[in-house]
Write a structure and sequence with these properties.
This protein is an all-alpha fold. It is built from 4 helices and 2 strands; from the N terminus they run ααααββ. Strands 1-2 form a two-stranded antiparallel sheet. The structure holds zinc ion (ZN).
Length: 143
């Protein structure tokens, strides 16, 4: 009876962990296309916290001895602390912003090389095709 209760409860917790995880991944992937270090850390954090939760459960269900529980719990907490620290250092150093900016500019550059540019006949500078005069030397651009 106790085991059945634990089974149901762990299923519910698993769902509670997984559902917001998938939702957040959707929005994250629309912002950053490639997997980033921050992204990986978030996943790692979810795994570590999930493990701790599972462990707490097993302990409550009587599957673990007090000694084993304290030992493993300590190790897991240390692991979680490292992940939290890494996430915190990335977030506080605004690396995430830099990361997004880099991704965005990478995408911009990709479209830029694909679009036509008006090359200045006098200084060879690349101008926007909408420019009538060269932004570098002021020479008239041919269209
Ligand atoms: Zn020019």
């Amino acid at each position: 009876m106790v085991y059945l209760f634990c089974g149901i409860l762990s299923g519910a917790i698993l769902a509670a962990i997984c559902i917001p995880l998938f939702r957040r991944d959707d929005t994250l992937e629309s912002t950053i296309i490639e997997e980033t270090e921050w992204d990986l850390l978030q996943r790692k954090k979810d795994v570590v916290l999930g493990n701790i939760q599972d462990l707490d459960f097993e302990y409550k269900c009587g599957k673990l001895s007090e000694e084993d529980y304290q030992k493993i719990r300590g190790e897991m907490s240390a692991e979680a602390a490292v992940v939290f620290q890494e996430i915190d250092s990335i977030e506080s150093s605004k690396d995430l912003d830099a990361l997004i900016r880099r991704e965005v500019s990478a995408r911009k550059n990709k479209t830029k090389t694909g679009s036509p540019t008006a090359v200045c006949p006098s200084c060879r500078a690349q101008n926007s095709p909408t420019n009538k005069f060269c932004a570098e030397c002021g020479a008239k651009l041919k269209h």
